[in-house]
Amino acid sequence: MHVTGHTRAGASAPPDTGQRRAASIRDVARVAGVSYQTVSRVINDHPSVRPETRDRVHAAIAELGFRRSATAVALASGQVRAVTVLTSNTTLYGYAATLQGVEEEARAAGFSVRVGVLDNDTDSGIDRAVAAAVDGGGGLLVIGYDRIGAAALDRIPLDVPCAVAAENPFGSRPPRRPAVWTDDHIAAREATAHLLGLGHATVHYVAIPSSSPGSRRPTPRAAGWQEALRDAGVPRPKPCGKGWDSRAGYEAGVKLAKDPAVTAVLCGNDDLALGVLRALHEAGRSVPGDVSVIGFDDAPPSAYLTPSLSSVRMDFTGLGRAAFALLRQLVDPGSGETPPPVARPELVLRESSGPPGDRPSGN
Amino acid sequence: MHVTGHTRAGASAPPDTGQRRAASIRDVARVAGVSYQTVSRVINDHPSVRPETRDRVHAAIAELGFRRSATAVALASGQVRAVTVLTSNTTLYGYAATLQGVEEEARAAGFSVRVGVLDNDTDSGIDRAVAAAVDGGGGLLVIGYDRIGAAALDRIPLDVPCAVAAENPFGSRPPRRPAVWTDDHIAAREATAHLLGLGHATVHYVAIPSSSPGSRRPTPRAAGWQEALRDAGVPRPKPCGKGWDSRAGYEAGVKLAKDPAVTAVLCGNDDLALGVLRALHEAGRSVPGDVSVIGFDDAPPSAYLTPSLSSVRMDFTGLGRAAFALLRQLVDPGSGETPPPVARPELVLRESSGPPGDRPSGN
DNA sequence: CCGATCCATGTGACCGTTCACAATCCTGGC
DNA sequence: GCCAGGATTGTGAACGGTCACATGGATCGG
Predict the structure, then answer these.
(1) Distance from C-alpha of A217 to C-alpha of A172, rounded to nearest angstrom
(2) Cys bridge to A322: A339, B34, B52, B361, which one at CB 3.0-4.6 A?
(3) Contact B97, B90 (CB under 8 A)
């Protein structure tokens, strides 16, 4: 017998308290000596209940340990008070932070948050996840930064309320759904312009995958980068990179490192930048001395890398909050809260970027 | 007017298809010319329905675009088929990966996954989150790696089914709930022993916060580290560190870097290790030449750090899967699936660790 | 002192499904 | 040809709330 893995699971179940059915409002009503409707009024803070009656009901509630069944409320009222966040990955910083923002705002509004992971790149996998999410009822929130998210979006029936946190839909067909985004496009342009301003002949780009199927449409980040190059009238190298993670960044970096003309690299996210940094280091090219690197997203650890990574800070949490607010307006327009503000992307300069050829004095 | 933030929200709501109430099984029954109960049988794959009838019902379902209401099912059947994952943070790698594992397993079992973030360290904040989770119905899955998770655990009524993914409860009161864990304790001991075996006089430890309130009980990781030191009969320095993130690691690292006797550092997670690496670098101490650093968790980017980080790989996804399976058994014992295996922690050696004083030849 | 109102409470129906049981049809054995 | 019994199908009553309306009493202006 070979190693099959290793789980320790201590089980010490509670002494099984009989599992009696939970108390309903009718039980409470009986104990309090009122009708079930009065109980309903009390738990809904309806004004016209005599204080004395209210107290009696509250006492009964406490005595029986009554908890209102969210399921029953949903069925009777016809509203589900839940959002399902569809995402392709909870592990990447941007996605996780967006999810956290949604949760914050949702809980404040009394909504529960469900998560559906689009872990399977096949159509049927996406379909299954979407179906599960739709069946759950309530609204959907799609994190559509990537291809899988965008594909899922197309599979959601139009009568299901749904909002999107996505890339800037810049230049493409307008989304069929309410959407929030921040201006990565402009941010990428600014970051690129910054590098050019420092004196770099041009800026290379390690791309995150496009969210459109054939990957023909560039992401807003790629577009912003290109725009800056064009505006400056400098050579426009081909973007590279095929993936989201450090490994993809590393592979792209290996190629870039071989070209001595490369002195500045913008990356589609910080994980990619990390891989690029690594590849440059292995090739013996110093950062920022030989090559400047700027990332995107400003994940918390980036500030502590060596060299610390210049990056474009994105307010994913705010984006998540705004996305929820948008969906909320869709679901009940009465709750006219204005979406919370999303911070504009901000270029955070650290050690990994600087003027070209700026080698430390000791060299 | 100053910058208040920046949101672009394009709203292009669908042409509002009348929002007619969704079809129910009674509607389907009418169209198919059968009773609602027959429809119920069809959607539940009950054997005794004539094939012809079944086809007719299926046709009606397709025609009306019928979708079974999960809410109504939950109410009528009394079972909620949902898990709520309570976690303090979705952004840290270990938590996010655990969540993802839960989701995988849950979706396979037809459960939906809810997320509750314990974002507020106050008792009332925790209480609110727990109450929201409990009210939602279904089981609870607490990610109890930290103090907040552990505190939440104590506030869940005993009649709510609940399982835990937590630290090895090693040496403390057994958990009141079914729990899964991996042997970080042993893994920490092995990592420490490895460093000692390399010739280091002792190993310092940058701790993750304890999950017990007064932080008096060491985490399994800390305990394993101490044990290895004791077994080897070497000096046992005080653990340092007060936090989970790179910043905390950096602060601890600054202190450690001042002490020339420090040649080996074990860190409670990779983020901490990243901060330590940074601090050592700033202090001019090379890694692994002057100091060896080993992290914990083996987050994906760690392999691409410079120097690449030795770390203890943890199977968080597997842990999440197993935790769900455990909860499932609690909720309906009939579904006797054995929990999926969890991979044992594994020490992954990379550049950041080595024998003491092993400076590159060029120096 | 009476009807109009408002306040406090109760009653019945319903949300969309499942469960328990009854009813009907059909088949086969004797 | 009759009856047991399985296969099919239907009916009524939950599940735990909300909603719309009805009821009874108190308040109040004229």
Answers:
(1) 8
(2) A339
(3) no
Element (DSSP H or E) covering residue B96: helix B93-108
Q: Which of B131, B135, B184, B143 lies closest to B298 in space, CA to CA?
A: B184
Residue of B nearest to A65 (CA): B157
Q: What is the DSSP letter of A304?
A: G
Residues with Cβ within 8 Å of A153's Cβ and at least 6 positions away in sequence, in order, are A142, A144, A162, A164, A175, A176, A177
∠ CA B6-B12-B18, rounded to 5°: 140
> CA–CA separation, A354 vs A345, rounded Å?
20
Distance CA B251, CA A23 (A): 52
- Among B99, B112, B168, B172, which would you mutate to test the A interface (most chain A Cβ atoms within 10 Å of its Cβ)? B112
Q: Which nucleotide is nearest to B66 (CA to C1')?
A: C16
Calculate Rg over the CA atoms of chain B: 26
Q: What is the DSSP string of A78-110?
A: S---EEEEEES-SSSHHHHHHHHHHHHHHHHTT
Residue with tokens 């104590």: B154
Contact B288, B307 (CB under 8 A): yes
pLDDT of B127-157, one tens digit each? 888 988 988 888 999 998 888 888 898 889 8
Angstrom distance (rounded) from CA A311 to CA A194? 12
Q: Which helix (H) or strand (E) holds B97?
A: helix B93-108
